[in-house]
Design goal:
By secondary structure, this protein is mostly beta strands. Helix content is 12%, strand content 32%. A six-stranded mixed sheet has the order 4-3-5-1-2-6, with helices on one face.
Length: 121
């Protein structure tokens, strides 16, 4: 959250797609989270939780290309680009909703921007 705390974005803007899928047969729910290439990935946790309407404590970790992300690193460290997918792993027993029949990914139209005045409270 360095960029948010100091009010100065670090690096180029990058829009990452954070995806949660309850099971192999459930639709994935996707939220686009805006951050910056040199801002630690820890900044996406509160943004994702806000967009998904869950407490941050329900997020166990994020994965990128199948590997658990070190949230102290930046998108630039992982060579992330716009529209790259980050998978959400929730804590055991928590869900974003009941599984739905098999289908394609659905897109949530809300984009959370860390630079918005609402997120700087």
């Amino acid at each position: 959250m360095y960029g948010q705390q100091c009010g100065v974005p670090k690096g180029d803007p990058v829009a990452l797609k954070v995806v949660y899928q309850a099971s192999a047969t459930a639709k994935a729910v996707e939220h686009t989270v805006a951050t910056h290439s040199e801002t630690p990935l820890s900044s996406i946790l509160p943004l994702y939780a806000q967009a998904a309407g869950i407490a941050e404590a329900f997020v166990d970790h994020f994965k990128f290309d199948g590997d658990k992300l070190d949230l102290t690193r930046t998108p630039a460290f992982f060579d992330m680009e716009d529209d790259d997918l980050i998978d959400v792993v929730l804590t055991k027993g928590s869900t974003l909703g009941a599984p739905v029949p098999e289908g394609k990914r659905i897109k949530v139209s809300r984009t959370v921007d860390p630079d918005s005045a609402q997120n700087k409270l």
